[in-house]
């Protein structure tokens, strides 16, 4: 049986096409969702995780990451410190690439610059082994080493640190997956009553999970918030933003890790001190 997921080099042009459709720029999540949509990638294929024991990253997201890396080195993409990827003037002019030529040129450039060359077999879907990242460590802790109750308390703390007030854990059996509620304060003037569900999960949340959650929250809050250590299927994302239905904001495992880092909850960020001696200052005394 053939692998239903395109290899990373076959995702290069779909990635470029997605950015053209997004107006020339987009976040990683926007690009990912647009590629799934434009390429009509089977939902079952989109649920396959690259390394379930390490992270919630899907195989498609992993391969798109390598496609972005090669296209950036090839001069077709650039990215900001805020995680937004953009088409370069070259990309807007050329529109498409020859994937094998991209790989050949980038690998040659790496060698010429005395970098460690990433030799990739074009028929190898595993691409490269990666070292454990801080996000993978968080993923393993949240999915394997803490209890569901601890994850609920973590969610409560994250919401409080993010400006929510009156955050309560209310989860109980038969409550449609509702785990708690709180009030989001906006600039000290406006507020929204929010009901949330936090799912400690290795996998992707489906559209039916979103529908069940919405059914439980109707009439009880202004907005819904669904937080998971896993990911959301494209159908789940569309269901959460469906016209005419109460809105539900989604936070996946990657976004949760970034928020923990931002709030420094269980994540310590250390800045390396750089000391420079200004010889001229001493001489001019």
TrEMBL record:
Residue ranges occupied by any Restriction system protein Mrr-like N-terminal domain in the UniProt entry: 11-91
GO BP annotations listed: DNA restriction-modification system
UniProt keyword terms in alphabetical order: Endonuclease, Hydrolase, Nuclease
Protein name, per record: Restriction endonuclease
GO molecular function, one term: DNA binding
Keyword hit for rRNA-binding: no
Domain Restriction endonuclease type IV Mrr: 145-258
Any single Pfam family the record assigns to this protein: Mrr_N
Source superkingdom: Bacteria
InterPro entries in the cross-refs: Mrr-like_N_dom, Restrct_endonuc-II-like, Restrct_endonuc_IV_Mrr, tRNA_endonuc-like_dom_sf, Type_IV_Methyl-Rstrct_Enzyme
């Amino acid at each position: 049986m053939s692998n239903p997921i395109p290899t990373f080099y076959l995702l290069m042009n779909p990635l470029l096409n997605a950015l053209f459709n997004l107006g020339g720029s987009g976040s990683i999540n926007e690009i990912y969702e647009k590629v799934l949509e434009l390429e009509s990638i089977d939902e079952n294929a989109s649920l396959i995780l690259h390394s379930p024991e390490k992270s919630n990253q899907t195989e498609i997201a992993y391969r798109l990451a390598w496609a972005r890396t090669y296209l950036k080195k090839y001069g077709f993409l650039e990215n900001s410190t805020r995680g937004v990827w953009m088409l370069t003037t070259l990309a807007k002019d050329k529109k498409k690439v020859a994937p094998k030529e991209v790989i050949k040129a980038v690998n040659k450039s790496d060698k010429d610059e005395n970098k460690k060359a990433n030799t990739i077999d074009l028929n190898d879907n595993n691409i490269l082994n990666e070292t454990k990242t801080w996000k993978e460590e968080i993923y393993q802790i949240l999915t394997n080493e803490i209890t569901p109750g601890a994850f609920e308390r973590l969610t409560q703390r994250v919401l409080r640190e993010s400006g929510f007030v009156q955050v309560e854990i209310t989860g109980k059996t038969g409550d449609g997956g509702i785990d708690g509620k709180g009030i989001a304060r906006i600039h000290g003037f406006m507020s929204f009553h929010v009901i949330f569900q936090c799912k400690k999960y290795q996998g992707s949340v489906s559209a039916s999970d979103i529908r069940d959650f919405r059914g439980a929250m109707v009439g009880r809050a202004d907005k819904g918030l669904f937080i998971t250590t896993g990911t959301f299927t494209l159908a789940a994302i569309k269901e959460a933003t469906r016209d005419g239905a109460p809105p539900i904001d989604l936070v996946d495992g990657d976004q949760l890790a970034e928020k923990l880092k931002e709030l420094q909850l269980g994540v310590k960020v250390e800045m390396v001190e750089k000391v420079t001696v200004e010889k001229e200052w001493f001489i001019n005394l």
